[in-house]
Every structure is written in structure tokens, then in C-alpha cells.
Amino acid sequence: MAGKIQDQVQQASSSQRNEVLEDFRWAVTSRHASLMGRKEVFMGKAKFGIFGDGKELAQVAMARAFQKGDFRAGYYRDQTFMMALGELTVQQYFAQLYAHTNVDADPASAGRLMNGHFATRSLNEDGTWKALTTQYNSAADISPTAAQMPKLLGLAFASKLFRNNKQLKDLTDFSIHGNEVAWGTIGNASTSEGMFFESLNAAGVLQVPMVVAVWDDGFGISVPKEYHTTKGSISEALLGLQRTESEKGFEILRVKGWDYEALVQAFATAGRLAREEHVPVLLHVEEMTQPQGHSTSGSHERYKTKERLQWEKDWDCILKFREYIISSGLATADHLDEVEAAAKAEVKLQKEAAWNEFNGEIKAELEQALDLIRTTAEKSSRKISLLQLADDLKKTINPIRKDVVSTVRKSLFLLRVEGDEVKQELENWYSQLQEKNQDRYNSHLYSQTEFSVARCKQIPAQVTEDSPLVDGREILQAFFDYTLEHNPRFFAFGEDVGKIGDVNQAFAGLQAKHGEWRVMDTSIRECTIIGQGIGAALRGLRPMAEIQYLDYLLYGIQLLSDDLATLTYRTKGGQKAPLIVRTRGHRLEGVWHSGSPMGMILSSLRGMIVCVPRNMTQAAGMYATLLQSDEPALVIECLNGYRLKEQLPQNIGEFTVPMGIPEVLREGEDLTVVTYGSMCRIVLDAAVELAQVGISLEVIDVQTLLPFDTQGIIGQSIQKTNRVLFADEDVPGGGTAFMMQQVLDHQGVYAYLDAAPQTIAAQAHRPAYSTDGDYFSKPSVEDVIEKVYQIMHESNPKKFPAL
Ligand SMILES: Cc1ncc(C[n+]2csc(CCOP(=O)(O)OP(=O)(O)O)c2C)c(N)n1
Q1: Looking at residue 589, what is its pLDDT?
Q2: Ligand 1 midpoint to CA 607 (Å)
Q3: In which residue ranges of the chain is pLDDT below 50?
Q4: Residue 398 confidence (pLDDT)
Q5: Which residues line ligand 1 at a C-beta cut-off of 6 Å?
Q6: How far, in whole angstroms, is CA 148 from its chain's centroid?
Q7: The pLDDT value given to residue 12
Q8: Cβ distance 71 to 155 under 8 Å?
Q9: Cβ–Cβ contacts within 10 Å for residue 701, how many?
Q10: Whose CA is nearest to atom 11 of ligand 1?
């Protein structure tokens, strides 16, 4: 018996030893990847490099505590963690450094992101979800520092919902009883960002399983931490968040980045607390280093003192790890040297394999291009110039796709005077190459799967004479009630959404009916409301995040633009977050409640659907479409429409409004007005008055700005009327300029126009307060009448004399 126990003790200690040595192997593997990565950049084989050296030890410890189903949302230093988890091979690491466009080579971003942007794939190729609870998960990184924090909150919040909302308990591909922890990493300097503080406060309020590890190397590029953080320490500065026996809050832990045992223990404690008790944890990892400096963009000798540089050498976490292993008798120095030598050799092999695969594809295309240009040259009158182009291409050092394509295009330009028999082969080859490059560099901005909005079922609203006339807000209320009943993954949250059912009462009574885990209040924090939604959507839920007024979307626009709108594109279809952002805008009163900054939205949110319903029936149909699809969307309801009467369709909750299909609201002969949202009513009122002076307006509601008129309905109208005016409430050159560009560039209407296409928009400033402020700032019925009349006057001054 005694022997058996001794065996067990020995087995335990040998497996412990193996674990430690495995961690050492990953630490040195990662370090050599960093060292070689930097050289690749200096040799010109990659453009830029940012590496995880100096942060290795904490990351092997974090990997030990990370479990299947968990999510990471971190930043560019986390290569060791990803490698130790088995979610990043060294070859993939180098493939991203070279920007290899193949998903298998770089599963995180298919070459779309610079190195150090990590992600796992949550989706199958057809856009369906993988079983996230059976894999390790990393949300896709983005570069703006601290912007990983709001979605981290949402990833953690999803666990809270899964644990508390019993209707979700069968969704075991996404959560097992809300046991999943969301692990965040952030550099010490980046904790100065507002997003960091907002996210931590919200996590403390919500009590979500979120562990935030701060990698503290004392600097943010060249700026020391005294310039960044009160008291020079984020854990000191945030002591007020620490939970006590009587008050909920954070658990705050501090640990040194070179102390292996303490790190393993700290991450284990953090993981346990978060997983079991849903307590958020701040884990401040101090005394980290940066052996190679911040990135390949400069050297740290410029701003670190000699003493600091020496300290970083003496306290290098791998050096300390070696000392620990040797002094604990877990391995000898010779053995560790052997492990390190083997790791280094392996890194070199995988680096070369990554380069050969990356370069091999390009070389093959280059050789094909050279062959084709040369054979074409033999048949062409431009032989000498073509051969010269081919020779120049051949001589390029480390050629890239741009060199190949640019040479082919120059060749085809030279060949413009030749017949098909000379150039057809090169043209065909180039058009196939274009298709491949389109897929490599331009695809997946929008969903390419069966869940794209374009493929949603179209079900018309059923309205009869008997359909009751109700307030617009009641249409939405009926829709949300139906959806809460039928779709357990759907939940809505935002400022004042819960108890009172939003400031315009579209959710009135629905929290009481469906529960606090379906319809909920948040604090005033637009940015993390968006992040909360992104994170929850990444975990298979269908959140509706409410921004109380469109004017306050600016607090969240950076996140929407950098994170949500780019998500599917930057992972080449590897992740999706079908978040619906609901807000209300356009006309009301004053500088901050009448905004319509559509130009800003259109420029920054490509990758999202942008819906601008003219009334609440259309809004309900759009929400139904969006909930069938997997695309993220912004829906801007009309602020002044909640009390207007509309007929309640019989099939509320089921009817859909298709995306990208404008609706002709009034048919006419003389001029097409293209508009949306609250302006629809103004333009329709103007149309009635203009009819009385013999001007017949065709009024078109675009309904969605992204996508925009996918069937060319506006162009067809212009073919009939030969005149067009684009109208909205944005500043001049905003939404109207976008609509005009779309129609002129994509619908070939130039030949049909009898008058210059024009726009009518609001003043360049925000509206002054009160109804008069609105009248003198936003387009009024009279403004539209006069503008249309002016266009008609220019066409026919006799019939329409000057005003
Ligand atoms: C919003 C934003 N501002 C500036 C930058 C440029 N930048 C990249 S890394 C960095 C320093 C970050 O330092 P820290 O958070 O301490 O992380 P470390 O690199 O030291 O690990 C800066 C300023 C950025 N990426 N995003």
C-alpha cells in the first residue's frame, strides 16, 4: 500500500515536471519566434513586426487556466498564449508575418492583419457555428489599444446570461451553464484609455466572469508608466473596485511577470473565481520586459536608460524561469539547453516552411505571368516593350503579387491595339487571377453565406381595412413581444430599456412579461453597450443593443467601425457577430437630439447593414429580416414617429422588409425625389402641393442605405422622369452625396438626365433649439417645393417662371 502511494506521489511530481518543462518549451519557442521574426522584417521579407518577447511566462500560466469554451480578447503580445493552447503553430505565426492570404496558412486573418492579431475560427465555411464549447476561442484582435475591452465585457456577459436564463440551457454548443470565462489582456499604457475604465466599471456592476490581465512592462512605446497611470500602478489606482465581505466588486491580484509559481497560482485563482462565482478579476502582472523593444519601428535604446536596459536583461522572465527550474531540481541546465536548441531548430524549420509556402504561390504566379507575357510578345508588335517588362519583373527581389499584377496590367495596356488572337490568353489568365485576388483581398465584407440579408425570405405585411390603427411604438412593442416569445436567443438592453421599456416605450411591459434576463437596463455607457452586444453575439446570442439617441452613437462609432464592421472581413469569414444596434434619430429638438450624421455612418460602417425605416411597420419588418440573417446592423428609427398612427399588421413578427430594395411611395412623371426616414413625409407633403402647380413627383424611399438599391429601382424611375433630387437631413455632402454617387456610378443614368442631378440637405451646422431652430436648419416642405420648382424652372422657364 505504502509503495502504491509513493508511486502516485512520484507520478504526480513527474507529470508536474513535464508540465513545467512543456511550459519552458513553449516559452523558448515563442522567444525564438520573436527573435527570428524581427530579423525577417529587417531582411525585407515582412513589412512590420511586433512580438511577444518578455511576456512569455505569464502567458503559459494563463494557458494553463484557460478551458475549452472560454474566450480570449487580447492584444498583439499574446503569441505564447496562443501557441501554448495549440491554437497557433509557429508556421502560422510566420505566415501572418508575411501576410499569407490563405486561410489554412493564417487562420486568424488570412493575411489581412499585420502580425500579432490572433483569432480562432468560430464558423464553418458555410457560416454555421462550430461547437464553441469544444474548442478554445479567441475573439479576433484589433489594433486600437484597449478596444478589445468592450467586447470582452460582452463575452463575459454572455456567460452570465447562459447561467441565468433557463431558456438557453440547451444551447450547449455555446455554453455549459455559463461556466466560460472571458480572459482579456491589455498593455499597462493602454489602461489609460476610456474604454478600459468603462469596461471595468460595467464588469463590476454586472458581476461577470471576466479576467483582465494587464501586461505591465513599465512603458507604452517610449512613455514611462508615471505618465500613464495615477500612482504609476493600475492596480493601485483601481483599489476602489476591490470587493469586500459586504460589497461586490473585483478581485484584484498582483504578481511578478518572472515568477512562474506565483503566475500559475494567480491565473488558477482568477479562473476559479470567475468561473465558479462569476467574480471579475483584475490581474496586474508587473515587472515584465521587452527584450527587443516595442516593435520593429524603432529601438528602445533611444528612451530606456542603461540601468533599465540592464534590469530587463537581469529580470528576463525566461532567464528567471531557467533559474527556478534548475534550483527546484526539475531539470539540469544542460537539459534546458537541449530543449531550447531543439525549439530554436523547430522554429527555423517552421519559419522556412511558412516562407516557402507563401513565396511559392507568388513565384508560381510570377512564372506563369512571365511565360504568358513572353509568348504574347512573340506575336505582338510591342515585342520589345513587353520583353522589357518581363525582364524587369524577373529581376524583382522578394517579388509580391503587386509586382506581378502591375506588370500584367502594363502589358495589357500596351496590347490594347492588338487583336484577340494576340492577347486573349493573357487576358483570360489575368481575369482568373483577378477573381482569385478579389477573394484574397476584397471578399467577406458582407456575409457570403446563406445567412446573408440578400437571401432572407420575403414575407409581406398583412394589413386589411380592419387592421387597427395604433401608435407607431405599439407596432414595435407587438413585434418585440412576439420575438421575445419565439426567439430565446434574442434579448434587448440599453439605457432605460428595462423597467420603463425604453424612453419611447416600445418595450413597455415586456421586462415584466419576459423577465430581467431578456429586457434589461444598463448604465449610461454607449461604447460598452456596443461591446456588450458584440461579445454576446460572438457567442451565438442575438442581442439588440439600444443607443438612446443617434447623436450618442458617436461614443460607440469607433468600436462599431473598427471591430464590428470589420469582423467578418478581417477573419475572412471566420467569425461573425450579428448584433443589431437600435437607435432613433433625425428630427427632434436641438443640437444633440436631432442628429442625422448619415455621412459619418456610411463612411465608417461599411460591413454593416444600415436601415433607415420611415415608420415603425417598416422598422419591424427590417428587424425580422435581420434576425433571420447573420449580418450586423444599425437601425435608425424616426424619433418623431412613435406617436404617429399606423395599422398593425396581422402577421407582426413574421413579415419582413427586404434589404436594399427601395419603395416607390408615390408615382410621378416629372422628377424623382430619393429620400428616407423622416424626410419621406416632408417630401410626400411637398409632392401634394407641387401637384397643384402641375409638377408630378415620384417619391422613392430607399429604406436601407447599406445595401443600397440593389435592383436599380431609382435608375428605372429616372429613365421615366429624367430628373432627380436626393434629399435628407444630414449636412450637405453627407447622405445625399452617398446616394447620388451610388446612382450615378452604378445605375448608368447620365444619358437619361435632362437636368443636373441635385441634392437638398440640412444646414452645415446642427439645428438650433426649438421648432424654429428645426425649420431654419433642416429641409422643410417649402425648401423641397422651392428646390424642385427651381429644377423645373431651368427645364421649362416658360411654364415655370422664376420665383
Ligand atoms: C488607440 C490607439 N492609439 C495609439 C496606438 C499606437 N500604439 C500601438 S501600441 C502603443 C503602446 C501600447 O503600450 P502598452 O499598452 O503598454 O502595451 P505594450 O506594447 O507595452 O505591450 C501605442 C501607443 C494604437 N494602436 N491605438
Answers
A1: 84
A2: 25
A3: 1
A4: 87
A5: 77, 143-145, 187-190, 215, 217, 219-221, 294
A6: 10
A7: 58
A8: yes
A9: 24
A10: 220
